[in-house]
Specification:
With 113 residues, this protein is an all-alpha fold. The chain is built from 6 helices and no strands. Bound molecules: iron/sulfur cluster. Iron/sulfur cluster (SF4) binds next to helix 4 and helix 5.
Length: 113
C-alpha cells in the first residue's frame, strides 16, 4: 500500500520530513490522494474527474493539518508540485491560488510604491 509519505516522497523525489505529516488524515491513501495518470484520464473521459478528486478532498476536509499541508504544497517549486490533492486543493486549483497570491503581492507592492 502506498502511504501518503511515499506518495509525496516519490512525487517530489525528496525526503519530506514535515512533523505534521504523521497527523495526516490521508495516511495510507496515496492512490486516493494522487491517482495514477491513467485513472485521471479515464475519469475525465467519463466526465467523472470531479468525483475522483472529491474522494480525496473529503479526507482533507476532516484533516487536522490541512493548513500546514496546503502551505507546504504551495511552497514547492512548480515542477515538483504535481502531486494530486494537498490541503483540499488539486494541482490546478493550487496553481490558480498561487497566481492569485502573486497578483495580490504585486498589487500590494504597487500600492505601497
Ligand atoms: S490536507 Fe489532505 S493531503 Fe494534506 S495531509 Fe491532510 S488529508 Fe492529506
Amino acid at each position: 500500500m502506498t502511504t501518503f509519505a511515499d506518495h509525496i516522497a516519490t512525487a517530489v523525489r525528496v525526503h519530506v520530513d514535515e512533523p505534521w505529516r504523521d497527523r495526516a488524515a490521508c495516511k495510507g491513501q496515496g492512490r486516493v490522494m494522487d491517482p495514477p495518470r491513467e485513472q485521471i484520464q479515464a475519469a475525465r473521459a467519463l466526465g467523472a474527474e470531479r468525483a475522483l478528486w472529491l474522494k480525496a478532498k473529503r479526507l482533507c476536509w476532516q484533516c487536522d493539518v490541512s493548513d500546514e499541508c496546503l502551505r507546504w504544497a504551495l511552497s514547492l517549486p512548480a515542477r515538483e508540485a504535481h502531486i494530486g490533492v494537498c490541503g483540499g486543493l488539486t494541482y490546478e486549483e493550487r496553481l490558480r491560488l498561487r497566481r492569485r497570491q502573486g497578483a495580490l503581492a504585486a498589487l500590494k507592492k504597487k500600492e505601497s510604491a
